[in-house]
Specification:
Number of helices of chain A: 12
Oligomer: homodimer
Radius of gyration of chain A: 18 Å
Strand content of chain A: 15-25%
Number of strands of chain A: 8
């Protein structure tokens, strides 16, 4: 999916919501355990209930890997299902990968060829040659960690480098590697004050924003400071939506929670000339 | 495996060689394709041929993930096989993971519980709470990226932070999170000059050293500058060993290449009082 198509999706749905598929078999309704693949059944029901509201889905790889082979089977099934909606949703492998060139190439193969995700989250510590192999795929995206939502973001990301803080250096330097048509940044909603400044650093790039909801990020401030003329934000919500109910009505409850989030989002979204 | 047991292994084998299982189905001898799981057959033959020489094995996750479900099946089989040699080898999941706390916890579950690795490589960008969940397992290890072997290590790791370079900050700060009995650092052999200084920063920690061989790192300088009284180094070699021959004699060729490397290593290894 290219940037224009992504924006069309946002305009059509008047939403920039990403649903995080952090599916934990211990937290899903117990009656699903009677199915051969409870994790997939859960994901499918969540997707079906929210497909008109969400523009993106983000399976969190750790949750699938923690179950070993059966988790990977659930992930593959989920992606096969999501890819039936090609053009209607943007898919994100939340994998935080990154390694030396020949290894990143293999990760790119895993996520872009084998699983056919539209994008993958990548960690910046190893620099350019760890990111480049992911950028060699047309209409696929790298979502590079910029300023993360967790407490540990304070350990290194705010270090002064003599030329801005580390996360600012990452955001500045990475723009030499990838254009706004193939590169986004992860910017946590728990730093709403930083968005204004980051928007100046990378005006034309999309940001994937975790941390609204369970982690305490502020939607209003994030939107006020982070939205660009092309929207430029994809806000992720996982636990608040997928675990809105632990009963048999989990999908309806997820839909209700997603709708509420999208209605709030729509207040902040600019009116696009193409609408 | 704890630090004492690791050192006993090094003393017994007079080796600190790790064999990198970067197994690429396109590079293994073609006659293996007749087996139901060619990647596992290859790994098993390499392990059998080098088990008396190597103290560690390091599957590189990207190579398995690139094959999807069948790759994960090969990885699980390889780990089941390696875990039959418990106490005789140290196992490393080269995965470069790291995410917010609840997600790192899931990765820890994947690698330490499900696959039962002794250690996992972790990226430091997201800070303390992204690393801690891995440190909560007794006798399991985090191997944190310090100074990596690739060209991109120059992009951020050498940035001056006002209190040392970024990689020095990482190595210094992480020692507050984990002891030398549960934490190691990745230090690339392509920076042999940095080892002396790093050894002063973290005198009692083990370093996992990639970059000898195909990436051009210098074994002699690495050993002269990096060895500690407790050895303190695990040197990885992948391509030079596992692809020493592309014919049916690949396992014997791997053994020969591993033996040559171990003989070179033994020259630098101190004589331990317990020997």
């Amino acid at each position: 999916m290219n940037k224009k198509e992504l924006l069309q999706l946002i305009i059509k749905k008047r939403s920039f919501l990403c649903v995080g598929l952090d599916t934990d078999i211990q937290l899903i309704p117990q009656y699903l355990l009677k199915y051969p693949d409870p994790v997939f059944e859960f994901n499918k029901a969540i997707i079906d209930a929210t497909i008109d509201l969400a523009i993106a889905y983000k399976p969190n790889l750790a949750f699938y890997e923690s179950m070993g082979l059966s988790g990977w089977a659930s992930l593959e099934k989920t992606m096969k299902y999501l890819n039936q909606f090609k053009g209607q949703v943007f898919t994100i492998a939340d994998a935080k990968r990154g390694d030396i060139g020949n290894t990143s190439k293999m990760y790119a193969k895993a996520f872009f060829e084998h699983l056919d995700f539209d994008s993958v989250t990548v960690a910046p510590y190893m620099g350019e040659d760890s990111v480049k192999p992911f950028l060699e795929y047309k209409d696929k995206w790298v979502i590079l960690l910029g300023l993360t939502s967790n407490k540990g973001s304070n350990d290194f990301q705010f270090l002064e480098t003599g030329n801005g803080k580390l996360y600012e250096q990452v955001i500045t330097k990475a723009q030499q590697w990838g254009t706004p048509d193939q590169l986004m940044f992860v910017i946590g909603a728990t730093h709403p004050e930083a968005f204004k400044h980051i928007r100046q650093l990378a005006p034309d790039y999309f940001y994937l924003v975790p941390g609204v909801g369970a982690q305490g990020g502020d939607m209003q401030k994030t939107c006020e400071n982070g939205l660009s003329a092309d929207c430029g934000l994809i806000i992720n919500s996982a636990r608040n939506i997928i675990y809105a109910s632990k009963g048999e009505d989990f999908a309806q409850a997820a839909q209700k929670s997603a709708r509420k989030t999208v209605e709030e989002m729509a207040n902040y979204l600019p009116v696009f000339s193409k609408e």
